[in-house]
Amino acid sequence: MSATDQTKASNMPLAGCRVLDMTQYVAGPTATRMLAELGAEIIKVELAPHGDPTRFHPFIKEGRSTYYVQQNRGKKSLCIDGKSPEGRKILRDLIQVCDIFVENGAPGVIGRMGLDYDSVSKINPRLIMCSISAFGQTGELANAPGFDWCGGAYSGALSMIGERNGSPMPPQVAVGDVTAGLLASNGILAAMLHRTQTGRGQFVDVSLLDGFFFLHDAAPARATVAGSDDPDPTRNGTQAGIGLAPVGVFKGSARHFVIMAATDAMFVRLSDAMGESSLLNDERFATNSARAANKAALAEEIERWLCSISDDEACELLNKHRVPSAPILSVKEACAHPHLLERGTAEVIEDPVLGSFVVPGFPIRFSEIGRSEQRPAPNLGADGSEILEDVLGYPEDEVKRLQGNGVVVGS
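Structure tokens predicted for CoA transferase (411 residues):
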């Protein structure tokens, strides 16, 4: 870590922590991005000749990808020929000087490079190694290939999304990948605390499937408890399928709203907001079970009211009467919303090539920990010389030889 980087990260909880990052796509880079935000030095090792495949995911300008930049700010890049003996030696040397090693290849891939946990723990017994995969390192699915939605499919979660009589609909956000990344960073931090107590590193196994299944609320219990009248919970369109009403998505004048009046008290407040006290005397809506049984009729009443006024008026009345609700914004609207910008939820970054654009900001606020200044996402192999010379102590002429032989790619 350079003197400048040390100064920037010195007051962060992971200051002085060095991470070997052999991840790509989203799940792994999310985990290491979380560690970078907490002050860790991230050495992202990319394999020649092309590096992380997301470098080629749109939007791309002058060879630089917004997709890659979002996930890899605050990191350094070393690009090597991982198949060559000298490239493998560089990796083993990095294992010796790193605190954490994160990878998200299919199970067995990293082992064929000689970097499985049994091997790396012999090199560095204090090392914490985290592997993120589709289905985990054990079990009958362990060796099956998979990405985000595959984990969602096996978890049963995708069966819960969509219209009741239609096809399952996968979410258009990276639920499985980002969840796995967050769980991985959480597991790594727990392993670090354990290391301070024992002096030993350990292996952390995280999967997309495990994360997706953990996102269920009550569906697995409802599906398996004896005597349940809901033996196989399924998708329910725009309305909640958990016996609560009104809880769902409702059409307004120009946009849709989420309204979650899940208790009797909340329904009273919704009726007041609508100016429809008569709803409280309607036996179809007198109790939650009655509302759930008549949720289609109730949705018609709510949508009739929403469409009779402007969306701004609806927001004002719902908020005034403390009804849990929100207008459904487009992505572009969310990126420009004052609340998201003020909190840094939507973070505007400046990239030397792509210019100014919004990325998801660090999602945790601390009272005693500030934000670490994040360096721009690196070009492929941009930090190779610095890492080899300053971190590993390779002589300059040796670095030049490795670059000349194609073992190390980039500057």
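The radius of gyration is 25 Å.
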